[in-house]
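User: Continuing from earlier, I have the next pair ready.

Assistant: Great, send them over.

User: Here they are, in order.

Assistant: Folding the first of the pair now:
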Amino acid sequence: MLRLRGANGDHTQFAVDAMLGAIGLGVLRRLNEPAITAKELAEELTTFAWGALAATAAAGGLTLDPDAPLLPLPQLSE
């Protein structure tokens, strides 16, 4: 996605792996200690994931807009 938008996408797999690991641990904690609802967990983790993705994109030279599509639909099929 970063490369398609003209940004540097090198080595982003490490940030993505870290984000997925953190989300997995958040889900595991919720399963072991259900102190919040599933909806609250989803909201918290969505905010976290967006922050991680936006920061990774910014480090690669791309500013993401949460209200804009990442790519036009025809470009996604390429």
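And the other member of the pair:
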Amino acid sequence: MKEQNETQKNSKEFSDDCHKLLSSVSDALYAIGGKWKLMIIIAMARGNHRFTELQRMVNGISARVLSSELKELEMNGFIVKKVDVGYPVSIEYHLLPYSETLEEVVGALSRWGMQHREKIKNDMSTQRQTKP
């Protein structure tokens, strides 16, 4: 009976731990997930602050999607939109200090992406060599 209670306790702790992990990853993916958000942040960190600069730098993103992603990044506290009401009106986007918390994530993803690309290239090369 004691073993059963211990097993249930360990199972519950494991389930709670798993739930916390899944929830935190879900929260992270909500804030920075998708095809474009991190790419926009990286482009902004490299000095691109105007809408057209961002659209040119982030290959393949449409104006409508960029506008939507910028609004979501602003809502999540990563960027701020600055409007200069002179003539002509000038709009720029700037990273907030909170965006620096993504530096480690971006670095890890970049390293993994390079490693994965190499693996795929090596796998494809090996497959070509083994085909009769």
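Worth noting for the second one:
The longest strand covers residues 79-84. Residues 2-32 form the longest helix (31 residues).
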